[in-house]
Amino acid sequence: MANPESSGVAITHVVGARPNFMKMAPVYFALAELGIAQRIVHTGQHYDARMSDVFFEELGLPNPDTNLGVGSGSQAVQTAEVMLRIEPELLTQRPAWLCVYGDVNSTLAATLVASKLGVPIAHVEAGLRSGDWSMPEEINRLVTDRLSQLLFTPSSDADQNLLREGAEPSSIKMVGNCMIDSLVRLLPKASKPRTISTPLEQGAYGLVTLHRPATVDDAATLKGVLAALARLARQLPIVFPVHPRTRANLEAQGFSVDPSIHLVDPVGYLEFLWLQKNARFVVTDSGGVQEETTYLGVPCFTFRDNTERPVTCEHGTNTLVGRNPERLVNEVLAMLGSSSDRKSGRRPALWDGAAAQRIAKIFEPLLRTAESRASRHS
Length: 378
Ligand code: UD1
Ligand code: UDP
Description:
Number of strands: 13
Distance between the termini: 18 Å
Radius of gyration: 21 Å
Bound molecules: uridine-diphosphate-N-acetylglucosamine, uridine-5'-diphosphate
Order of helices and strands: EHEHEHEHEHEHEHEHHEHEHEHEHEHH
């Protein structure tokens, strides 16, 4: 199954956007322990230091072997730029396997190129489906899974989705959640943000992240959710690390934001873990934050109509409130006012900090086969 023309690089990891880094780190370290030759290709989809460099540093990752510097653009431009720039990388390095993460444009673009070059693909976080075709991520997930030879899934719903779509059963490997691996490793190092001026005491603030186009690119929706947050801020101060997409929209609309919503720049991973762990509640439209709050047992209210992570609602502490400001306010106030305030959450199976170890174990024999093939060809 491995690329028979491999040059000696066993695995090339392709990452580009913030959530990719936490998912790759444990896989990189588990494979490094086995002495497996790896390359990290950063597409440059995210490029601000606060959206990229800080994570390499805090996760203890080496600098990427190469950065393709694609930057921002429309869906088509960004995807096409990654495709154009990654093709020579894969042609010269000829990895035995390409490893891609999650559902961002960089994931899809690298997969399309590798697939046509005959480089087999492993997809970490395979099988998640929202059923919402208006999200670019749903298209990215579908195509990436269809072209991948190894489908590493985080939960059994993902296995079911893949089987329903006709994926080869032997390619589906439920390994657990790699993003949670990073959380488990680094939670002991979570640190209270130093640059946020509002007092932050355990359980005495709400935490917000919003960055989906459906939430923040539409002026009326953004205005509605900000008004809802202002109502919640009468109960508890709100800390809102603002994603650059959201910042750009706030500036473009010239909204004046209620002063009890503390807008801050995106924070590093260790600080964000601290903020999540100690929050009274979290409001989000992020995929990763739905998972991390479920692991941490913190009430999470997801401002979306659907989720590709239903396990966080069924087993965890996540509540989907739709893109409905009124319902958001009512659900959070009901939780704050009730004595048994927490949706009794439990951690999904295999969200235990060892998902990447399971991935490395699956790769090991495959890479040995690739090595022996390569030596026969040389
Ligand atoms: C991307 C992913 C999304 C993921 C999110 C994680 C796709 C289709 N979307 O969305 O699935 O949840 O990352 O955060 O791949 N910008 C900066 N600096 C940066 C990066 C972005 O200023 O370092 C601004 C630019 O104005 C850019 C905008 O943010 O146009 C959006 O960036 P982009 O990477 O296109 O999409 P995200 O919204 O970040
Ligand atoms: N995160 C962070 N700082 C922030 C906001 C989020 O470190 O200011 C982390 C969060 O802990 C999680 C990941 O970023 O590990 C989630 O990324 P994001 O919400 O950008 O993307 P999504 O998961 O929605 O694709």
